[in-house]
What we know:
6-stranded antiparallel beta barrel; efflux transmembrane transporter activity; Beta-barrel_RND_2
Amino acid sequence: xxxxxxxxxxxALLLLAGCSSKEAAEPQPAQQEETVTPVIVDTVxxxxxxxxxxxxxxxxxxxxxxxxSKVSGKITSLPVxxxxxxxxxxxxxxxxxxxxxxxxxxxxxxxxxxxxxLQQSGNSSTSGLEQAKNSLRQAEQALADAKRDQQxxxxxxxxxxxxxxxxxxxxxxxTNAQTAYDNAKQTLQSAQQMSSVVVSEASVxxxxxSLQNAREQLANATVTAPISGFIASVDGxxxxxxxxxxPVVTVVNTNPLLVKANLSENDIRNVKVGTVAxxxxxxxxxTIDAKVTAVSPVMDEQLKAYPVEISIxxxxxxxKPDLVVNVVFQTGSGDDKLVISRAAVVESGGKQYVYKxxxxxxxxxxxxxxxxxxxxxxxVSGLAEGDQIxxxxxxxxxxxxxxxxxxxxxxxK
Length: 413
């Protein structure tokens, strides 16, 4: 029995010894090496983030004036043609002057009579008073005639027997007769209160004013260009009646041309007088650098936008109004801001980070950003000028990861 127990114990010891030898013979696994991630880096620099805001618009003339006559009359001359260039002061059209010239001669004669009366006024104060009475009677008769004519013309006009132009002339004649009557009445009242000399002096002044008005009316029969430019339209014909309500000729100044736009609240923040704009004209396959020349300080309440004007030089008048253009404003955050590649910024948990290079490791740094474009973003805090950051390969990194710099962003370009 004792021999049997000894045999079992020896067998167990031999088995344990064999297992220990086998474990000792098996090699232990080597310690795993840390992974090194290749990356591309760039340097934090000062610069500007360029922003772009674009819209479509049309070119418009710098000046556009619709020219009509100050007096009514028949057009006797219309020497300009569509597309013709005219200088400021050049004759555009003329009206019939016959009636106006007669009015000037009548006013001149009235002035001569008034001056003659003034010379005789020392001995004829009573005569001056009588003349004032006669003038009032004549004015009263003229007013009665004008009222009768106006009423008759009104009836004919309502029946369609006369034109609106003739009706307008009858109304004007009545107004003039009423004015003459009021003046004559006032003159008589003054004559009854003043000496004959004072009355005659007043008559002379009145005659001088009448003559001046008649001459101005005659001058208005010749209509000249108010600006230099091209004839954009001719809406009258020789023999046609012209009036102040109907333009006869339109003149436009096309150098420079204007782009008139309406910008929203967001876009107007970055636009001011002098802001550079790139204006592309698709039909001409041409892009022009222009500047903003006017910005409204108040919003257009109907459009809910701010009117803006951009001036386009057009010295050879090659560009035409109403051409469709595409406009892009280029504004920036300023050349003194820290700017990095937008691709370097990663977001996590609602925060923004970049990986800053420190030796052969990448440190995760939280940053605050500002304005951004499709390529670049402004750094407000978290980095300093000259810092190196990872711009490619950062998605494979974590804070403290080992890195190897493959190349810089400048070299990769």
